[in-house]
Write a structure and sequence with these properties.
about 290 residues, alpha+beta, Aminopeptidase, 2 domains, seven-stranded mixed beta sheet, 7 helices, 14 strands, about 25% helix, globular
Length: about 290
């Protein structure tokens, strides 16, 4: 009997179809869902020297395990850091003994900050034993239309093809339009205090055909910006059939009407630079969808 030879290697573009098949079997989401995300990974910018898709367990050329990785350059003021969203880890039952090969190879860069933003509750203790720390304990489900009205807030939806927005940096314009192309709702609020960009996305809470009336806040510069513009944003999200905006949080948010829960929304990191709340751009949530 031939000996099984399993090795861990980078996912190549020629592996995408087989990887999509594996993920479809492993997670129960449609193959179209996985192919859309993998195509987006194929086209996006990736920091030099890092894998485009992630790693797979290769058994005689066929993937029997996969861990998707989404690398991003984060720039805060004058600092630049590499961040990696660990996503969609699955190994076929017959090859579970090799599962640690994936995590060991994927997390080997000491200068990279790794994120796990969608851990199942039962995996929290395992993740913590791997050296990850929680940076977000839960979600605050805000009801923005119940917030105190701010005066003189003008709001506009950012289309995917715009090239310039007054009082918004070139980098943020590119961020807003890129996420609009991913299907997010990109907004700009203009107030006497300044101009503030936001990115939101419909939230998937449970399986089924009926979408909950919730948007998730994917990006803002500071949660205080959302508090100040919440009522204006609430009018826009209502036009999209939503009444609530969920915000990553470690407790109730002053100035917002809503409910805080730690039953969902916990997020972890490991590495040199803790991520900030209210920035889920270029993560699995937007590339693969809710």
């Amino acid at each position: 009997m031939a000996q099984t030879m399993v090795r861990c290697r980078e996912i190549r573009e020629s592996d995408v179809d087989a990887v999509a098949d594996l993920l479809t079997r492993g997670f129960g989401r449609s193959r179209a869902y996985w192919m859309q995300g993998l195509r987006r990974q194929a086209l996006r910018s990736v920091p030099e020297g890092y894998p485009r898709f992630g790693y797979m367990l290769d058994n005689d050329g066929a993937p029997v395990g996969v861990l998707l990785l989404l690398y991003t350059v984060r720039k805060e003021s004058s600092e630049t850091a590499i961040q990696c969203n660990l996503s969609s880890w699955y190994v076929e039952p017959a090859f579970r003994n090799y599962a640690t090969m994936l995590t060991r190879v994927a997390q080997r860069h000491k200068d990279v900050t790794y994120l796990n933003i969608s851990p199942a509750t039962k995996t929290w203790p395992i993740i913590e034993t791997q050296g990850f720390q929680s940076y977000c304990r839960g979600l605050f489900f805000s009801f923005p239309l119940l917030s105190r009205a701010a005066t003189d807030v003008a709001i506009e939806i950012v289309p995917a093809d715009v090239t310039r927005i007054e009082d918004v940096s070139v980098a943020e314009v590119e961020l807003l339009t890129r996420h609009a192309r991913y299907g997010c709702l990109s907004l700009v609020c203009r107030t006497p205090q300044g101009t503030f960009p936001f990115i939101l996305q419909p939230m998937r809470i449970r399986r089924g055909w009926i979408a909950p009336p919730v948007m998730q806040l994917i990006y803002c510069r500071d949660i205080a910006d959302y508090v100040g513009c919440a009522r204006a944003i609430g009018r826009i999200v209502l036009q999209h059939g939503k009444i609530s905006v969920s915000v990553d949080s470690n407790g109730p948010i002053e100035g917002l009407a809503g409910v805080y829960t730690e039953a969902r929304g916990r997020k972890y990191f490991k590495g040199p630079k803790p991520p900030r709340l209210a920035d889920l751009t270029d993560t699995e949530l937007v590339l693969y969808g809710p």
